[in-house]
Amino acid sequence: RSSSAPQNMEKQCSTTQEQQCSTSYEQQCSTTYDEQCTTSYENKCSTTYDEQCTTSYQQKCSTSYEEQCSTSYKTQCSTTYEQECSPATYGSYSQSCRQVPKESCKQVPEQSCHQVPKETCHQEPRTSCHKVPKETCHQVPKQNCQKIPKENCQQVPKQTCHQVPKENCQQVPKQTCHQVPKTTCK
Fold it and tell me: pTM of the prediction?
């Protein structure tokens, strides 16, 4: 069978541009930072002061005076006179009398007083205080952090396109021209 076009048909072609695309993948990376921390402990101390007191005793004395009395006895004598008469003698009618001294003594109490010193003593407490330093320590956590770089990669699609010429042909009727007589009238 012949593939040639019929006598009255002709082939007519035109070229158009066609876009052809292809997808490829490329690796795209970005860097992020992760924080990594470690805990260490350091000794932290503070000084406080406690009051410490001691009590000592001191003897304190005072003198007071009290009256002390004593009684002594003193002999006290007094003389009185008594009339003493003798009986009448023979031949005499009258009595003879005379004053006779008579001494009488008695013990008379006599009180003598004087001031006697009296010392009174007692123990008097005496408190003395002073500040005593006291150190208190405790562990304090300390966080040490640093940024660790981390690379994150992923496949990213990339489309590449280019124009490809394409020929489009079709069979069109062939135009045939021939001379036709033309009559012109006046």
Answer: 0.26
- C-alpha angle 113-114-116 in degrees, rounded to nearest 5: 135
For 127-180, the three-class secondary structure string (H helix, E strand, C coil) is: EEEEEEEEEEEEEEEEEEEEEEEEEEEEEEEEEEEEEEEEEEEEEEECCCCCCC
Q: Using CA atoms, how far apart are residues 48 and 120, in angstroms rounded to an integer?
A: 44
Residues contacting residue 122 through CB under 8 Å, at least 6 positions apart: 59, 60, 61
Say how many residues make up the chain.
186
User: Which residue, 15, 122, 110, is CA-closest to 70?
Assistant: 110
Contact 56, 128 (CB under 8 A): yes
- What Rg do the C-alpha atoms of the chain give, in angstroms? 80
User: For 183, phi and psi rounded to 5 degrees?
Assistant: -100, 130
Residue type at 18 in one-letter notation: E
Check if the beta carbon of residue 18 is closer than 8 Å to that of residue 164. Answer: yes
C-beta separation of 8 from 172 below 8 A: no
What number is the average pLDDT over the span 95-104? Answer: 82
For residue 10, give the nearest of 177, 176, 181 by alpha carbon.
Answer: 176
| pLDDT (0 to 100) of residue 3 | 47
Residue 89 in tokens: 């003698």
Helix (H, G, I), strand (E, B) or coil at 92: coil
| 144 contacts 37 by C-beta, under 8 angstroms | yes
